């Protein structure tokens, strides 16, 4: 009834696609659990590797009950299976034919077919009444057809038990009668052992005297009356004496007939105790030792009784055939045991089927080398690990699924279940609603990260010495973050350098030097720390405010890319401002600038390349920043490897025929990429970052004539600084009585 109601109101969901089953959609119903699925969904599921049974030969499994089926459904039929592609009728059950069901009921002893209309789910119990006998068959009762309850009366069963001698004493019961519980005594064939068994127990063979074999030596007197039977306990009678004259026709080794020995003068045997004549030849009987290649034989003269032990040795090889050992010959059984158990200590170095691990088995004879370890690699979701046996190639997608709604932080955007494992929260275009540290307007959208991006609101800030207010500063930058003390000995004021967060291409600045008005007299020493620009001595800080015009214009556009900018990427801001604004923001040329222009014109007249270094000025003294030195001290081996690679690249391009050579580094974190960018500037190498996190990498390119190898590497400079440092003071301890 529940299935009919859900299918009629279109509220039943397919377990494969989690979509509603429509009235006109082709479906398939499992005959074991009666779940209804889309026909196309169940076809795709049956062909997928995940649906296969564990043994691999039992077909595919139902998604609901895991019942294995061999055939894949191909056609759309009604629930009773009579009509193909049934048409929907408003007055009938969806996906039914409207005729009588006629299917056989689940009860095995019910002969009646289902008499209701074609329906989903199991057929109801049979309403007919039949006459059934009790378990013992002595009484009869009228019950409903298909009733599973057994009928039992109060009479004694009385059926004959398995022994055929006694009757069952139990009250009317189901199934066969229990075996007879009475015990009887049996004797073995040789008459030396007895045992008690249940009446009716199966006897091996009865010879009229005994019923079983005790597995001991028989020991009965043979027909000769002189020797005893040496066979294992057996049914009567015993065999003839093997030494009777009428039984023995040859010598003990079997090579010569006794008739020939009688002709040579041997005494004829009369009874079984007379000795058997010997032929005098070598016995030659095969011994129980030896191997498949060489059979050892008895070397004694023809004799009676057992042969002597073998005096030869045998070669035994280990299982893999790598090692052999020589041992004395034993019996064949012992020789086979020794050959199986003997193993060498050589470990197999072949790769297992996964291609990741080695076999590492001792004396290995395996040909497939299957890996029994668990894969354990992280799946694409990043939360769960692969639980399949170690394998080649990529792992399957994570099958974990959540049936809870996945929302953004504010709850506006929703991903409805089922949600595959590892799915990121949906993107939301609403403004972020988290609690922020400041009360400025919020410009960024709702996000799933716990920490919000820094506030990009432009505000005013004091300089380090509290002398002047600087306008147009980003909110998230404080004085300690963008200032660095350079020298406080001149005029008692604090001078600092604002490290620009944006690396500008071509003609724009990289570092800005900001000083308050009180420090203008000592501005020259600060200017020397700015790498790409030369400023006039005595330039006041308020004139440098023009530099910040660029930063104010591009602040909002660049704020969303702060992460990439801190990694060393360059941003072209010339498109954000006009040429007139660019001209107004430039500094006026001074005497030093005029000297540089004069030198440049002179170099052009003498045809001197700007990239050349004829007087070894650039390579004489490379300057490494303090930040680079601090980073290098944290990971000195990484910096040494990077410098070695850069030197090899520069030497290769300067000595080779090509004008450029590039090298691609593997993906690494932002700190290592920043070190590469700064070292590339010292070596005159171009460096560019590619791809997104976490696969972001750096590609460096050395240009012939432009890239140089500095005389002092960063690692050597750090070593000299370490050696020049004074040793730490030795602590003095106060001497006590103890």
From TrEMBL:
Broad class of where this protein is predominantly found: nucleus
Cited InterPro entries: NFX1_fam, R3H_dom, R3H_dom_sf, R3H_NF-X1, Zinc_finger_PHD-type_CS, Znf_NFX1, Znf_PHD-finger, Znf_RING
Pfam families: R3H, zf-NF-X1
GO CC, alphabetical: nucleus
Region of interest: Disordered: 719-738
Domain R3H: 636-704
Ranges where the RING-type domain occurs: 14-66
Family, similarity comment: Belongs to the NFX1 family.
This protein's name: Transcriptional repressor NF-X1
Source species: Tachuris rubrigastra
């Amino acid at each position: 009834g529940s299935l009919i109601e859900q299918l009629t109101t279109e509220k039943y969901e397919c377990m494969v696609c989690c979509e509603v089953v429509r009235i006109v959609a082709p479906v398939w119903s499992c005959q074991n659990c009666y779940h209804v699925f889309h026909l196309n969904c169940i076809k795709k599921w049956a062909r997928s590797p995940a649906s296969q049974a564990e043994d691999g030969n039992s077909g595919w499994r139902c998604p609901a009950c895991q019942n294995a089926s061999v055939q894949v459904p191909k056609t759309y039929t009604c629930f009773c299976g009579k009509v193909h592609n049934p048409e929907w009728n408003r007055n009938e059950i969806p996906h039914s034919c409207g005729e009588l069901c006629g299917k056989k009921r689940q009860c095995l002893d019910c002969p009646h077919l289902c008499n209701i209309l074609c329906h989903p789910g199991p057929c109801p119990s049979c309403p007919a009444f039949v006459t059934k006998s009790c378990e013992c068959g002595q009484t009869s009762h009228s019950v409903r057809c298909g009733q599973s309850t057994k009928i039992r009366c109060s009479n004694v069963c009385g059926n004959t038990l398995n022994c055929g001698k006694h009757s069952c004493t139990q009250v009317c019961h189901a199934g066969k009668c229990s075996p007879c519980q009475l015990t009887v005594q049996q004797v073995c064939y040789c008459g030396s052992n007895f045992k008690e068994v249940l009446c009716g127990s199966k006897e091996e063979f009865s010879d009229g005297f005994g019923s079983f074999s005790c597995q001991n030596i028989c020991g009965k007197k043979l027909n000769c009356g002189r020797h005893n039977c040496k066979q294992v306990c057996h049914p009567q009678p015993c065999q003839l004496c093997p030494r009777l004259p009428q039984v023995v026709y040859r010598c003990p080794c079997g090579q010569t007939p006794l008739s020939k020995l009688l002709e040579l003068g041997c005494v004829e045997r009369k009874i079984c105790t007379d000795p058997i004549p010997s032929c005098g030849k070598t016995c030659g009987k095969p011994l129980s030792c030896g191997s498949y290649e060489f059979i050892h034989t008895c070397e004694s003269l023809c004799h009676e009784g057992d042969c002597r032990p073998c005096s030869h040795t045998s070669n035994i090889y280990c299982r893999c055939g790598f090692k052999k050992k020589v041992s004395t010959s034993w019996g064949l059984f012992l020789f086979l045991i020794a050959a199986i158990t003997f193993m060498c200590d050589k470990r197999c170095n072949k790769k297992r089927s996964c291609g990741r691990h080695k076999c590492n088995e001792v004396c290995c004879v395996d040909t497939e080398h299957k890996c029994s370890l668990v894969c354990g690699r992280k799946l694409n979701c990043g939360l769960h690990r692969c639980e399949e046996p170690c394998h080649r190639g990529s792992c399957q997608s994570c099958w974990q699924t959540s049936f809870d709604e996945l929302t953004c932080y504010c709850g506006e955007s929703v991903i409805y279940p089922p949600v595959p494992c590892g799915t990121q929260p949906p993107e939301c275009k609403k403004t972020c609603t988290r609690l922020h540290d400041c009360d400025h307007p919020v410009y960024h959208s709702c996000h799933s990260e716990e920490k919000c991006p820094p506030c990009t609101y432009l505000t005013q800030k004091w300089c380090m010495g509290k002398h002047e207010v600087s306008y147009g500063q980003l909110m998230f930058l404080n004085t300690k973050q963008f200032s660095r003390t350079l020298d406080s000995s001149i005029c008692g004021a604090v001078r600092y350098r604002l490290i620009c967060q944006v690396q500008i291409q071509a003609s724009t600045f990289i570092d800005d030097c900001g000083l308050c008005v009180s420090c203008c007299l000592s501005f020259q020493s600060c200017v020397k720390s700015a790498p790409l620009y030369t400023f006039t001595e005595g330039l006041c800080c308020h004139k440098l405010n023009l530099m910040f015009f660029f930063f104010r214009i591009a602040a909002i556009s660049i704020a969303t890319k702060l992460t990439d900018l801190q990694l060393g990427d360059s941003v072209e801001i010339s498109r954000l401002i006009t040429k007139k604004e660019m001209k107004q923001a430039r500094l006026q040329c001074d005497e030093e600038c005029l000297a540089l222009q004069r030198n440049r014109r002179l170099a052009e007249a003498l045809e001197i390349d700007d990239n050349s270094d004829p007087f070894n000025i650039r390579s004489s003294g490379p300057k490494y920043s303090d930040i680079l030195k601090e980073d290098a001290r944290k990971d000195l081996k990484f910096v040494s490897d990077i410098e070695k690679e850069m030197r090899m690249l520069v030497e290769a391009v300067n000595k080779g025929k090509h004008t450029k050579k590039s090298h691609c580094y593997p993906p690494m974190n932002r700190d290592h990429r920043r070190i590469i960018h700064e070292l590339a500037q010292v070596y005159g190498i171009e460096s560019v970052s590619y791809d997104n996190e976490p696969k972001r990498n750096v590609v460096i390119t050395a240009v012939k004539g432009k890239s140089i190898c500095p005389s002092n590497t960063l690692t050597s400079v750090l070593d000299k600084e370490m050696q020049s440092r004074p040793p730490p003071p030795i602590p003095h301890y106060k001497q006590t009585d103890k």
